[in-house]
Structures are given as structure tokens and as C-alpha cells.
Amino acid sequence: MRANIALLPGDGIGPEVVGAARTILERVAAGAGHAFSFSEHLVGGCAIDASGAPLPDDTLAACRAADAALLGAVGGPRWDDPRAAVRPEQGLLALRRELGLFANLRPVRVSPHLVEVSPLKAERLAGVDILFVRELTGGLYFGRRGREPIEGGERAFDTMVYTDGEVRRVVELAFRLAAGRRRSVTSVDKANVLESSRLWRRVAEEVAAGHPGVRLEHQLVDSCAMRIVSAPAGFDVVVTENMFGDILTDEAAVLPGSLGVLPSASLGEGSFGLYEPIHGSAPDIAGRGLANPIGTVLSAAMLLRHSLGLAEEAAQVEAAVEAALAAGARTADLGGTLGTAAMVDAIARAL
Q1: Which domain holds residue 185?
Q2: pLDDT (tens digit, 9 = 90+) per residue, 111-145?
């Protein structure tokens, strides 16, 4: 098949890990007879420096014209003033909004070859295979906010707002994904306190009625946070709102022992997706060839599966990562000595 992939290297280690994933995608294309074309575009801090905007118009246009986009990371100390009117993260938020990407998928699996890296006991990690589905375009991050004077001081407010349609589309996606897995959905909310969560819970039950073969359970966000570290193997698909998902997925990232091994996908109604590792730009090691490329390589595998429909090739990439780890390939964050290039070479050889 032919596919056009937009590369958004971004800031810090982003160019290094995106370059690594491109190497693997090129190897996949050559081995399976596909034709992938790549184009690079600016986003984040480097885009601010070059154009004054974190998401230039030509970058957005290139993503609209592409079959999928692969992002490295955005941000860094030079753009880290929270009072700044223009910030790198605005580019990522704008991409999600403009491209209609309402669901973030974060799979959390614990490789049997990396159990010793995790801070959790090995017996708690057996069988962990969670798919988090986080709503991306609503909630506190997009609700009305502001500050106002009050007698003797100032008041700040952020508003968590959801429509039933916003909830329905992300929960529907979670149920469809669960149907191809272990057929269980955990819907996370705070319905004992929040009205928006009561709406979320009602809609989740309505969606569940249309998927009788998939089990639904409700879980309050605070108890879910405890369960992630005490009994994570009990989860299959976890679906939740924006801020809850942001926090819970970062908590779950400790299970495999390193942020460097976890991928993600941001999806909308169509086949286009934005794929990125969950780690940040790691400016302390940028340009030194030390970054772990596994999270970006596995994000490229998700790109193959969800946007290009190449499930077999995606599985081959995932198996190659496991084979490299089984052979002892490790970057520094995993307790090893390999740099980015050597780790990619190990994965490419396995592929």
C-alpha cells in the first residue's frame, strides 16, 4: 500500500526518537512491499522560534493531507514560562482540536523481560495488559476558566463541561476496542461528587446496553488510582475523562518501569491518527544519542495498525521490540548501555 506520513519531530529528544521510528517504518515498508513517503514539519518550541506559532499553518495543512502523523515531543526549559502567551503545548492541543482527535489510546503492557525495572513486585505485574482510552477535547482543560477579584483577594475557576455526545463517542470507541480484547470496560468517574461524572456514568450505561457481549464496571477515580498499583492485571480497557485520564495514565506508566517504552495514539472518527511516545522532550539528554526509542517505535506500530490497517506488520514490530529486549538490548533508562542508534539496530535486526 501507499501512505503519506507526516513527521513532527518537535523539541529535545523528539528528532532522535522520530528518526529511529522512521528507520523501522522504512524497514517494514521494504520488507512488505509498501510505499511510505515522509515529510517533516515544525511543531512546539522549535516552531515558536521559527514562526512565532506553536502550530504553523503549513504543519496543520500537512497533517490534514497525510494518512497519519508521528510526533516526538514538545517543550523544554527555554519555553517553560507558564505565564507566556505562546507555549509549545498549545501546538499539541491545537492539533488535537483542529484534527478532531477526541480519544487518546495508551496501552500499558509489562514486558516479562523488564519486570526487574519496575518498582512494583513481580507478582503484581503478571498479566498486566491495560488499554487506557482518555477523552481529549472536553473537561477541565477546555471549559470556561478565569480569575476574578473578591473582597480581600482573588478567585480562580476552571469548569469541567461535557455533553452527552462527547461522552458517547469516546465510550463507544472503548467498547469497540474491548470487543477485540478481553471484553471488559472499566469506566472511571467521580459520580459521587461531580454532576459531569453522573452524566458520564449514565451515558456509559446506555452505550453498554448496545454491547451485551462486553462487561461494564464503574470505578471512582480515587479507588482506581489505588487499584492501578495494587491489582493492575484486573483491568482490560479503562475509559475516562480528560484530566482523570491524564493523571491515571502517568501513574500507570510506572508499571513497565520507564516512560521510554510506552506509546500512544490520538484518534478521531476517521482513520487518521496522531502517534507519539508518552515521554517528554528530556532536554537533559537531547542531542546525546541516549534516548530510548522504544515508545516511539511502538507508537509507529500503533500507526500501522490503526491508521494504515496493517495489523500484521504492527504485530511484527511489537514482536521485534520484545525480541530485542529478550536478547538483552537495553538503553540507560532500562539499566543498560545502548544508545538510541544501537537500540534501533537491535530492533531492526529482530524485525
Answers
A1: 119-255
A2: 999 999 999 999 999 999 999 999 999 999 889 99
Is 157 among the domain residues?
yes
And the C-alpha cell for 231? 491489582
Hey, CA dihedral for 215, 219, 223, 224, is it positive or negative? positive
164 is an active site residue:
no
pTM: 0.93
pLDDT in tens, 92-114: 989 998 999 999 999 999 999 99
Catalytic residue chosen out of the listed positions 11, 189, 190, 333: 190
**End of a domain among 255, 288, 312?**
255
Q: Number of folded domains in the chain?
A: 2
| Active-site choice (58, 158, 222, 284) | 222
User: Which of 49, 58, 250, 284 does the annotation list as catalytic?
Assistant: 250
The yes-or-no answer on residue 57 being catalytic is: no
162 is a catalytic site residue: no
Within 8 A by CB and 6+ apart from 209, the residues are none
Query: Catalytic site residue 190?
Result: yes
Asked if residue 301 is part of any domain, the answer here is: yes
Q: Catalytic residue at 141?
A: yes
Angle (nearest 5°) at CA 65 between 45 and 139: 60
